[in-house]
Sequence to fold (123 residues):
Amino acid sequence: MRSIPVDLSALTFVCVSAPRPKLVSQETGEVKVDRDGKTVFTVGLSAADATGRVDLVNVSVPGDQEVSIGQIVTPVGLVAFPWEQVIGGQKRWGVAYRASRITLAAPVSAPDSSAASVAADVA
Fold:
């Protein structure tokens, strides 16, 4: 399966769904584990670009993540990979996302209000 690295530089991610264990089967409730035996979790993120376009993506990560709904986050090592399968005679396909971990993004500093008022006085 081909993994495609995702360029994060133009995107802002917000956690919209708390981490939950990924299931192998809905019927049995079997939880997915990675090669190292760690439980795989799914975290729902919104990905927004500078134009205002927003996409919702579910990202699989090994181990529980310390993030909650509403936090601005960074999916570290984010890759996308296309998939397709036939279920009940119907072909399904999509793009899945995986990251090594999800961290809180560095805080964004607000503009200095005194600098803004000085700029307004100069104009």
